[in-house]
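Hi, here's the filled form for the chain we discussed.

Project: internal
Contact: R.S.
Residues: 416
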Amino acid sequence: MRQLYFTPEYKSGEWSAEVRAVVSNPNDMERTVQVTGTLAGIDFSLGTVTLAPGAEKKLQKSFAFPDVSSWSPEEPSLYQLHVRLYEDKDTGSPPLDDLIERVGFRTVTTRDGKLQVNGKDVVLQGFNRHEDHPMAGAALPVSLMLHDLDLMRDMGANAVRTSHYPNDERFLDLCDELGFLVWEENHARGLSLEQMRNPNFVWQCEQVNREMVEQHYNHPSIILWAILNECASDTEEGREHYSRQLGQLRALDASRPLTFASHHRERELCFDLADIVSFNLYPGWYTDEDPKALCEQARAWADRAGGAGKPMIMSEFGGDGYYGLRDKARIRGTEERQADIIEANLAAYTSSPFLSGMYIWQFCDCRVTDATGWLLSRAGAQNSKGIVDRYRRPKLAYDVVKRYFKVSRNVISNES
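And the returned structure, exactly as it came back:
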C-alpha cells in the first residue's frame, strides 16, 4: 500500500468517512489482493483488486461510525485507523502490508463569509511560526516543539501557520493532540515574476504541493492549505501559477479550503481563485496607517477583486522588538513599541466581525539571510518580530497577546 486517505463527513447527526487506499504491485507477476481495515472498533473491507505488474489502483468506500466523538479544538478526539493488505482469500495469514494512521472526525467549511469547523463558526487566533531554535536550528526535538505550543496555548492561541513550508510530522502530531488549527503551506514565498519564470519553479511547486497533501492529509488539525506567500499574484502571468497550483490542491483534496497570503493590497488579481482571502499588512511598523481603517479597506479591496462573500484572514502583522531593549520613549525596536503595535492591531482585528482569523508575525525571533538591502538587512541577521525571542523568552507583547486572545476567545465561546 502506497497511501491511505481518510475523509470524514457529518450528515443527519452521524459521522461517516470515506477510506481510500492506494495499492501498487512492484512485482513482475499479476497479484490479487484484498484490503481490510479497523477503526473505532468497526471492521470493514475496501474490497479486492487484481494488479498487473507495476500497476497502481485506488480502493475506496464510505462507512458509518455512529459512536465516535468529534475532533475539535476543545476536545481533540483521535482514533487509530489500521488498514491491512492480504493475498486474496488469505486473511488468516499475516498481512502482506499495512498502514496505520491517527485520524479525527471533523469537517471544515466556508459559509456566509465565515469559516466553520464541524459547522461552528471559528475565529483563528494564532501565530506564524518558523522551525528555528538557536540550540537546534531547524531540527527541533519534540520537547522544544511542545514548549512552543505550550507558550502559544498560554497566550490563548488556537491556531498556527506553518510559515512558509510544510512542517515536521511530529509537530503536526502535537497539533492534532492539543487541538490547534493549522494553516499549512508550500515552500515558495516572496518570489518575483522573474524568479517564478525559473524552469524549475513549476515542477518543484507541483512536487511540494503533492507531497504536502499526500503526507499530511490525515491530520485533523490541518484545516487550510495555502500556496505562494507574497509572490507575483498581482500580474496576469503570476495568476496562471496561482490558478494551476490551487487547481492541483483542489484535485488532491476537496475537503479543505484554500488560501494564499497577499501583500499587494488593491492590486491583487487572484482572490477569486481562493476560498479565503488573506492579507499581510503591517500598520504601525512599515506604515503609519490605522489598523482598523486598513482592515476595513482591505475587506473592500477583496470584495472588488473577486473575494466578495469569502472569509477573510489577517495572515501577517506585527513589528520588531529586540529582547531586553526597553525605553520609555517607545522608539522603534523597543519592546514597548512592539507591544503598542500588537495591541493596536489586535484591538482592531478582534473587534472586526468580518474577520475569520489573525496570525501575528511572528511567534519567535528567527535567523534570516545576512543580506544587504533595506528590507533584509536586519540586526544580528535575525527577524525580531517574535512575541518571544529565539530562546523563547517572553517580551512585553506576550501579555498583550494573552489579554486579547483569551478575552476574545471567551466572547466567541459565550456567543456560540
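Let me know if anything looks off before we file it.
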